[in-house]
Specification:
Layout lengths: L34 E8 L7 H4 L10 E13 L14 E5 L6 E5 L2 E5 L4 E7 L7 E9 L3 E3 L2 E3 L3 E10 L2 H29 L6 H31 L6 E2 L5 E2 L2 E7 L12 E11 L7
Antiparallel strand pairs: 1-2, 1-14, 2-3, 3-6, 4-5, 6-7, 7-10, 8-9, 10-12, 10-13, 11-12, 13-14
Helix pairs in contact: 2-3
C-alpha cells in the first residue's frame, strides 16, 4: 500500500487523544483508522458576530454547503491550537484526497474548493468521563464564496462536537437508562393506583402521606440518575463507525475573529456555521 493518504488509511497511522495514555507516541483510541464524511453548512447562525466583524457577510440568509472526507491519524501534528488541545496530544487530521476538491454551484457555475489537512484532539467533556469533546481544524487555502457567504482564502476553520469512544460504556449506560425509565413508569402507575383508592380512614391517610414522602425522595433520586445517564448517551442520529465509536450528529464551526494570538486573553472566535458527520464504511475507503 502506498504511503500517500487516500483515506484507505495507512496502517502506520495512529490516533491519540487528551485523556488516553500515550506510550511511545502510540494510542489505543478506537478512532484510529476511521474515516468520516463532513458536511459543512456555512452561514449566519444565532449569536454570531460575523456580520459585525465582516459587514454584509451572510446577511441574505444564504448558505454555503461543502462536503469532504477526513481520516483521524496518530501522526503527531507539527502545530497546535489552544482551542483544540495541547501540542503533545494533537495529531494530524488528513483530508482524503479522493474527496477533493469539494464543489458547489454559484452564479458563476460549478466551483471547486480545496481543504488541507489539520490537527485534532479529544478532551474531557463536562457530561461525564465516557463523553469526549472532539475538536479539530482544517485549512482552506482557496477560499470560497457563494453570494454573501464566504470562506476567506487561507482561513483556518475550527470544529467541535461530542464523541463516544467506548461502545461497552454506551451499552451499559443505555441498559441502566432503560431500567431507570421502567422504574419511573412503575412508580407513576403505582401512585396513580393509590390515588384511586378513594375512601381511607385517618390512620391510612397518615401512612399514605408518609409513604408519599419516601416515594418522593426515591423519585428525585431516579430522576437525577435519568438526567445523568441521558447526558452520557449519544444523541439520536449520531454517526456510528463500524467499531462502535460514535460522533454527535452535529457540531459547531468557528473561525478566529482577529489576528491576536490565541493564548492572549480575550482572543475572539466567531461562529461560522455548523457541520454534520457520517461514518464512511471501510469498504468505501480508497
Amino acid at each position: 500500500m502506498s504511503n500517500r493518504t487516500t483515506c484507505g488509511i495507512n496502517s502506520s497511522l495512529l490516533i491519540v487523544c487528551t485523556n488516553l495514555a500515550i506510550t511511545a507516541g502510540l494510542s489505543s483510541s478506537p478512532l484510529v483508522n476511521t474515516r468520516w464524511n463532513i458536511l459543512l453548512d456555512i452561514g449566519v447562525l444565532p449569536g454570531t458576530w460575523m456580520p459585525k466583524r465582516h459587514p454584509g457577510w451572510g446577511e441574505s440568509g444564504g448558505r454555503l454547503v461543502l462536503n469532504l472526507d477526513v481520516a483521524f491519524t496518530g501522526t503527531p501534528s507539527a502545530t497546535s491550537e489552544i482551542l483544540v488541545g495541547p501540542k503533545e496530544s494533537t495529531f494530524r487530521l488528513e483530508v482524503c484526497e479522493d474527496s477533493q476538491p469539494s464543489k458547489f454551484v454559484s452564479r458563476r457555475g460549478e466551483e471547486s474548493v480545496t481543504f488541507e489537512s489539520g490537527g485534532w484532539c479529544v478532551g474531557q467533556s463536562n457530561a461525564g468521563e465516557e463523553v469526549g469533546s472532539l475538536a479539530f481544524w482544517l485549512d482552506c487555502p482557496t477560499g470560497a464564496k457563494r453570494n454573501d457567504v464566504e470562506i476567506f482564502p487561507n482561513e483556518r476553520i475550527f470544529f467541535t462536537t461530542g464523541v463516544w469512544q467506548s461502545p461497552e460504556a454506551i451499552t451499559e449506560a443505555d441498559k441502566e437508562y432503560r431500567q431507570v425509565m421502567a422504574d419511573l413508569n412503575d412508580m407513576a402507575e403505582k401512585r396513580k393506583g393509590e390515588e384511586d383508592t378513594g375512601n381511607q380512614n385517618l390512620l391510612d391517610k397518615l401512612l399514605s402521606i408518609r409513604k408519599m414522602v419516601a416515594d418522593s425522595k426515591e423519585l428525585d433520586i431516579l430522576q437525577a440518575r435519568m438526567r445523568d445517564l441521558k447526558k452520557q448517551l449519544p444523541p439520536p442520529k449520531s454517526a456510528v463507525a463500524e467499531n462502535g465509536v460514535q460522533i454527535a450528529p452535529t457540531g459547531a464551526m468557528v473561525i478566529k475573529g482577529d489576528p491576536t494570538p490565541a493564548w492572549v486573553p480575550g482572543s475572539e472566535y466567531l461562529i461560522f456555521g455548523k457541520f454534520s458527520t457520517k461514518a464512511v464504511p471501510s469498504s468505501k475507503e480508497g
